[in-house]
């Protein structure tokens, strides 16, 4: 019995033993846990095994770029056929490794800058695509069937025990480390510097195996800075409609905003237009949102109770430090972001998701994919979906649910009525280069056909969308009784696009009488009032002023 | 400008300042961070303020019971009107504080043992109910509008810096601490002992303000131990049908099980019945599941690749330590559970949720609520819902989605077809005391009326349920074309209940021809074969044997 159990003991510790061997192989390169940047390639070659699942931390913003370069510097004869499982494909190295034969398979969530190159490599068969996930979905799979064998992560500093300080861009790090470190994986962190004591412990040292002192500070993308100077009167008009026709009517207090100019305009109208409507403390008090600079005037005006963040934003650090009542911060004073929790908050604790898209079809399906780019959707499909698992009521959610029930002819027992998440698309009828936002067929379908994808890359499906806001008006899809009404409601706000011009005018008129379509004048909004003077800040400099000089915009946004 | 910014600085640090004052008030009671159990009441009276939002850690299993007693010992003249925000209402003290006037408002997720008393106190107006959430939903709100001011948590040990070791029942602790510590809250941990160095750091010390050395080890509930000796042949028959008619047909690899005997029977049939069907490594490989003792035979037989756990289970510690290839464990060797991540995994990374319920109505709505108990649903509504935000395909999910599309007459563009989560109810037609499982009207509706709840306490709504398994057969609700077919499909497996006897026999026959209803014989299952000899373990002792003596069942399960 003892012998067989001893045998068993070996049998059930193969992963653990392999982990110990990897660490032993790398140990000669390390001083304790610390490895110098020049040995990073050797470290990865010692730790990695062919076929490993690897998370090379590519977050929405923070990039483990030193380790990305090191991975790309590995000998493909030693390190090959890796299965990359990471939320962001952002740096060139993230794709170089596929061309080099180091990596083979990819499961990811988002790729802004590399979307076109991913598409070309998928066409060319250089990447075996697992799937394009939402962030939260990929995190979920980290714990089930996509658990990393090795995680290559990034932080600001570490001590010699491996205690890690991420600074404000905590983002995905705790999630990646938890999945890896507790399932026999190896965690390697790059840090900008080794210190005696970290300002706060974002990751306990006993979850970190090696620390690489990087040659340069890790790269962070500023992604959420929208210059008010570039905001148009059309965007301001749409923002006014959203505030008066949706935020006020449903009494939305808990919400998430996308990153476009339309929602940034809403943020800038809170202390002006919305204040005049008497909405202060009645709407937009609790947020799942990155620290958007355009939210500063609303914060300074006392509109905002609390903001939980997915990540941070370049230039916002000092401001956040001085606003601990609003933001989640650590004992070091800087932001503590957390993408997994913020995405969960966006899914289950917010009553509204509002964002933009590139294309919307006649059923309300939308996508940011074009025929030549596979960008991924990040968090939008998660936060922009109606969570059937929600069980707590709110006024907003119940009102939307009541409208949805009316649509179904009031069928079913009213006592069994649920609420509905508000999912709003705020788009101009024509986008960049005058390409129409409203289309008969999404480019995503063509891409799915070309790449033979099982699932078309749809960002938000039509049945989850409740409202579409354009410069022509608001379409309330909740109130549409059937697919025809829905199509005409969409056509009815699609302006001069082909889809808009193809409307049935009589039916659109009836929809307007039923308040399914509402024009600015139906909302008591005079389009000529949509003036830039309504913006609480009209420039980045104004935002700096609002912040009492605490907001420090990146150089490219400084033009004074 | 400097003066105004100074003013501003104060203005934006009210929470932070209040936090510092609370800690300063308690400091005289502490030696560093350590407070003795006899001073726990004084500690709470020093830290708490009337109206505070407080999380008194009541998890599914682990209880901060020493701190619960201390809170209940506070002077209601000093500590009153608290708003309790915690997932579990388990201990008597969790409700005593409402009777004492210490607490007033409650937002929670689950209460098994206290469900009847909560109901009485709600009727009596002693508790102001916020809402009954799922776990993940309540966690989400911790980051938006239910952020705790004070968290009272439990761990196995702590060092003098406050670094906390939770042991295998990590459960909710990281989530509760993250929401509290990073938003100016105060975190107080009770631990079984103070040590020089913790075996692993589950919570970094800089997030913990005070550590109380408890007078007794914290209470843990064994909740997931199902004695195979109590398993009936009816449950075995249902388990056989589920395996052959659902698991095999959809090729389910990633899954979550409820805690009833039906799913425990499935676990025990994997190495026997399912093995004979040739399903090894084809089904049930990756799990979001607590460490169910009934999973031991499947693990030992090589069926299970990986299990991520919400919490732990009493008696499973040594077994888990010796199976690190299967379970998530820490450097100390013991389980690392995490309810937030496991719930997320159950939502987004699993293709199947299967569980039991007390009542199912004619539309497939189900509830475990009775007219006199408000138990809450824990995680079931979350994991038992179709996540619209999912964007990664799997064979299982796409097949279910294909069936759902057929239901809708194949309407819409096939390229825009999505998958579906399988949500299965496995129930006997009559439950305890021969009360019928199938009813015309859920008791939940009566409770909602009596308590004037905005939302009836439905566990899983009918539109999320895909299959119902009873001893009479499987009803596939995905394939039903309308509400009538759905009702008859449900009646068709409802046996001799009134609902079952009210069936339209001709229609049920047609549904059977269309394979919407399948009897055991339609699946090639002979009910007489459903014998206890099929169970891989027929007693707790068998489970111990399977585990090579590593599983150490609690005394109440030891009868040899």
Structure characterization notes:
Two copies of one chain form a homodimer. In chain A, helix 6 links the parallel strand 5 and strand 6. Helices cover 32% and strands 16% of the residues of chain A. Mean pLDDT of chain A is 95; it is low at 1-7. Chain A has 20 helices and 21 strands. The radius of gyration of chain A is 25 Å and the shape is globular. With 560 residues, chain A is an alpha/beta fold. Chain A starts with a helix and ends in a 14-residue tail after the last helix. In chain A, strands 1, 2, 4, 5, 6, 7, 8, 9 and 10 form a nine-stranded mixed β-sheet that branches. In chain A, strands 14-13-12-15-18-19-20-21 form an eight-stranded mixed β-sheet. A two-stranded antiparallel ribbon of chain A has the order 3-11. At the A-B interface, helix 1, helix 2, strand 6, helix 7 and helix 8 of A face helix 1, helix 2, strand 6, helix 7 and helix 8 of B.
Multimeric state: homodimer
Strand segment count of chain A: 21
Q: Can you tell me the overall shape of chain A?
A: globular
Write down the overall mean pLDDT of chain A: 95
- Determine the number of helices of chain A (DSSP H or I, runs of at least 4 residues): 20
Helix content of chain A: 25-40%
- Outline the biggest β-sheet of chain A: 9 strands, mixed
Low-pLDDT windows of residues of chain A? 1-7
Cα end-to-end separation of chain A: 79 Å
Structural class assignment of chain A: alpha/beta
Salient structural properties:
homodimer; 560 residues; alpha/beta; eight-stranded mixed β-sheet; globular
